[in-house]
Amino acid sequence: MSTRFELVIGLEVHAQLRTETKIFCGCGTRFGAAPNAHVCPVCLGLPGALPVLNRRVVELAIRTGLALGCTIQSRSAFARKNYFYPDLPKGYQISQYDEPIAIGGELTYASDEGPRTVRIIRAHLEEDAGKSIHAGTGAGERHTYLDFNRSGVPLVEIVTQPDIRSPPAAAEFFARLRGILVAIGVSDGNMEEGSLRCDANVSVRPKGETELGVKVEVKNLNSFRFLQRALEHEWERQTTRCSAGESIVQETRLWDEAVGRTVSMRTKEEAHDYRYFPDPDLPSIEVSDAWVEAVRDSLPELPEACKRRLRDEYGLSLAAAAQIAESVDLVRFFEETAKASGNPKAACHWITGELTRRLKVDGDAVGSAGVAPAALAKLIGLVESGTVSTSAAKEVFDRMYGSNREPDEIVRTEGLSQIGDQDELAEVVAGVLAEQPEAVDRFRGGNAGSLGFLVGQVMRATGGRANPKLVNELLRRALVDD
Length: 482
Ligand code: ADP
Ligand code: MG
Ligand code: ZN
Fold this sequence. Notes:
Elements: E1 5-16, H1 55-67, E2 71-72, E3 75-76, E4 79-82, E5 92-95, E6 102-111, E7 114-127, E8 131-135, E9 143-147, E10 154-160, H2 167-183, E11 196-206, E12 216-221, H3 224-243, E13 251-256, E14 261-267, E15 277-278, E16 285-286, H4 289-297, H5 303-314, H6 318-325, H7 328-341, H8 344-362, H9 373-384, H10 390-400, H11 407-413, H12 422-435, H13 437-444, H14 449-461, H15 468-481
Parallel strand pairs: 12-13
Antiparallel strand pairs: 1-10, 1-11, 2-6, 3-16, 4-5, 4-15, 6-7, 7-10, 8-9, 11-12, 13-14
Helix pairs in contact: 2-3, 5-6, 6-8, 7-8, 7-9, 9-10, 12-14, 12-15, 13-14, 14-15
Bound molecules: adenosine-5'-diphosphate, magnesium ion and zinc ion.
């Protein structure tokens, strides 16, 4: 692959706003209803039906803009974007065009390669279209069905500057943005249900060049993986063409997951093709400073700020803090565990380690994992007091997970308490030494590392329940004194 080139990416992210009703009518927005169950004259685009703007939608757009550091415009307006499509019954989509509700923000976050900033050009409101369902394969049995449940569902579209430089960075940005939209409650972020999707604009240019290359827009990517793979494919395709001296055609493409490549959908479209004009049915949106400030006050802590607070307040590493800050539920779980145990480091260790691992494997949410922060705090206490060894504690945790059982009860009924009894351990130690004469010789011959091996053997013989400090002591004593 050519390294003479640089990849340039800008994203247009569409998020469905969390409302009970559509943007311009009273129809419901709940996913999964029977086709055309949520329709009325307005969202079916029947003649004479008048749209009325849903106030909640504006509030959620303000929320989105503020969370992304945008300026909220005191005045914004809707335009008609005219085009023909069977699932767009009015023949136009109502969208904000030259007067969006929010402009000029940025999203900064820590990535593996240091801090990253992606500038936001704008966030604007629009309505979603309906859905065409193409069914049947053989001649004469092919039909297109139309479901207008999505028609008029409120969307916020977030447009970035072309600041992204690699496919993984695009996927990461999209994931961060999703995290924020979910954290502030404006979107459920459900990508399988179409609540969040993005169009990726992508071009290549020779390294060092400052002008942008001709871009291709890949439409409707509804997973982080599809986004990344589509961009990887475009990078390959565009650099191959450029290296061969061919030019890139400005066009819209679609990602075909089945064959793992993008395919052309239509060539270059221009804004004037849509004949945008102000929607005469809708007055402009006026947003007062007081409204903006009230929304600002109601915003929760955002992941980036939360991460820094967890580091400063609890002494966590930035990496661990970032992992926890990713989810509001994990943050709550962590803070409760840290407070109840008085040991934030241990709480963090358990939560970013065993708990996260089990949540992933079992596909559970924190709230339904069957482990309460108070119970985890107790387990941390049992390790601190030496009642259970760290390795036995893992076993206790495994049994706590999904069961809502208390750790002390598990330790008691399953005999997992730490063996701290000198005589009992001395016997095990003696047995191990008798079985491992070679390791004993190696230690005495100056190989200090073989002590670790012997400790491991004792731990194994006790099923991980021996107090490792005591085992160390007993082994040393036995090896040196004999
Ligand atoms: P359009 O009018 O075709 O929608 P815009 O200029 O509004 O184009 O930009 C839409 C999106 O495309 C933005 O996210 C922007 O950052 C991105 N973009 C624009 N030009 C390029 C380019 N040459 N390469 C990559 N992304 C681009
Ligand atoms: Mg576009
Ligand atoms: Zn309706």
